[in-house]
Design brief:
Length: about 140
């Protein structure tokens, strides 16, 4: 999966996307003047902003939006590439996220994306990214 941004992202958004890419193993691609259609050959995540901070996360498959998450973001620490994360949680949002990303269900792993009242990206017991979910919508997820 590719991570990209709006056309003129803030430095906070670019930094956030790089961290998210390291955590998930996804490739961060600077968008620039590239249209969304140019990314439609493979699944991608478009990170949008709210008041200069990451605020929307729209997942696209075959160029069509399939999952949108609106959240406030807290980025606590820098992180390094590691093993592919697993999903912990059984909420509809966790199931949709699992379906869109292809990440496996919780098993013994050091890198976890935990879904409860928020979404936490955890590595070796340390929470690196926290998303406080404001709303979500699964357009193409059954």
């Amino acid at each position: 999966m590719i991570i990209t941004t709006s056309r003129k992202p803030s430095s906070k958004i670019r930094t956030f996307c790089k961290h998210l890419g390291r955590f998930t193993g996804w490739e961060y691609v600077t968008r620039g003047k590239t249209s969304r259609e140019d990314f439609s050959d493979e699944p991608f995540l478009l990170v949008g902003e709210f008041k200069g901070n990451p605020g929307s996360f729209k997942f696209f498959i075959n160029g069509a939006p399939v999952l949108s998450i609106y959240a406030s973001v807290s980025l606590d620490n820098d992180m390094h590439p590691g093993e592919e994360p697993v999903i912990e949680g059984d909420s509809p949002l966790a199931n949709a996220f699992r379906k869109v990303t292809g990440f496996k269900e919780f098993k013994d792993s050091k890198r976890v994306i935990r879904f409860n009242d928020r979404i936490e990206f955890i590595d070796k017991g340390i929470s690196y990214i926290v998303l406080k979910v404001i709303s979500s919508r699964g357009e193409g997820i059954a």
